């Protein structure tokens, strides 16, 4: 005790004492420990392995006629797959990028011009737009329309009007054959 | 205040070791309370009662509820049809949420009218705002549990609000969901949180009361208590007043529960959740409508109409920021309001602004229930503007030129020819 009292007096001259060192190192180790212990709590809330395992979907596209669309489920989200007509492809290609809120050319959004594959979730607040079934309103640009807050998407799934900030997202996908689509 | 002496040997034995009886005597029986409190002061204790009702009915509902996407909806229907008195517990719990918010809104607006947030009660007020936030979180996760259409889509829309956080927004949303959409992991954790949060509210209420009992209640005149002649012991004077108010409130509450249990409800929520179909209109419960209106009021680029900022703030981001700001701003109210006079009774300008602000909040609620188009959008924007204009401009600057009325000498003096007479008889 007497020793430590002496060293702490020395410390008042601005010298770093053994006590300061012990205090700082203890607090540092404690802080690192708390951070390391916090991570499992945080990561436990992230998607689990079984959720991740269901993260890919394979689809047969052979039954889809030109102009038709289907809704598939991937990761619990609706995937819009539309076999576009030549007119729809032209309409998507002929838009000037300057007119777009989230500029992206149609070529950057499809692998095969005929097949448009989108995550069918409005980028505003996550509603599912209508327009994928025949007979539903397709919005002012012939694509999709979100009834929640009035966002209009075009035939490339790009936002054209309304509060949504971004275009429909494109899921990672590849064609395993001409008629088999692999999403994930 | 003298320390009570206990005659009962058992009570005395306990109180010597844990002075719980002394604590209750001091804080609920002898507790000195301004003698001029009106019925608007009932709503604090009413909120406490409804919190206990919510916890009690909630625990019993949880005995029969299954937090799984395939079973949640059916388990709630089973509670409604098969569980003894299940329908009653559910209707009490469901409408109790609405009642809780109704009471808290009156409680908040009472505080605003009588300046209860001003020094030295700033922290009391701020803890109150946190209780309100915790209530909103609890109500939100609770509404998801029946797993109806509005549960699912409300959860989707509100969790998506966090996607506006720069860079990590989408990761945070995935983290909140525990998956890539609102699904079973989301439902499970929401159930757990819905059970946890009320106890956090309970702890916050304890802090709220601790802060309250440090400087005691404000009163309709907003002036300091000058001595014993201005006060009454809490029991029996305010226990009986609170009980009477509770009786009136319970008549209203039970009237809703038994005669119009779905008055506040949304028919859409009696359809099981369908992740593939969004309802035509997503409408939150009535108590969230004003905030929903603020969320949807902003146009794209409204902060930066001249393109000065390096980033574009879209409608979604600015809406989310304004919505959270509208609540958090209340924490600053004790400092925004620079008038030394607490009660609006003596503030002729503020009094009128107060009623306009209250009307503005009601207008926001009405707008929130309607699609944001045409006139509705315009009115919503004006009302949103006024909300912030009131709190950020009018409240701080009106005291500069407002001529307040003369404050009474004391609480007693306000009701007697000269406050002295009462003082003499009481001493």
Description of the structure:
The complex is a heterodimer of chains A (about 180) and B (about 425). Helix content of chain A is about 25%, strand content about 20%. Chain A starts with a helix and ends with a strand. A 3-stranded antiparallel β-sheet of chain A has the order 1-9-8, with no helix packed on it. In chain A, a hairpin with a 2-residue loop joins β2 and β3. About 5% of the residues of chain A have low confidence. The longest helix of chain A has 27 residues. Chain A folds into 2 domains: about 35 residues; about 130 residues, Rieske Iron-sulfur Protein. With about 180 residues, chain A is an alpha+beta fold. With about 425 residues, chain B is mainly alpha-helical. Helices cover about 60% and strands about 0% of the residues of chain B. Chain B has a two-stranded antiparallel ribbon. The C terminus of chain B is likely disordered. The interface between A and B is medium-sized, with 28 and 34 residues.
Concise summary:
With 184 residues, chain A is of the alpha+beta class. Chain A is built from four helices and nine strands, in the order H-H-H-E-E-E-H-E-E-E-E-E-E.
Q: Count the helices of chain A. How many?
A: 4
Helix content range of the residues of chain B, please? Answer: 55-70%
**How are helices and strands ordered from N to C of chain A?**
HHHEEEHEEEEEE
At CATH's second level, what is the architecture of the largest domain in chain A?
3-layer Sandwich
Poorly predicted sequence stretches spanning 5 or more consecutive residues of chain B: 421-427
What kind of sheet is the major sheet of chain A? 3 strands, antiparallel
Low-pLDDT windows of residues of chain A: 4-9
Head-to-tail CA distance between termini of chain A: 66 Å
The overall strand count of chain B is 2
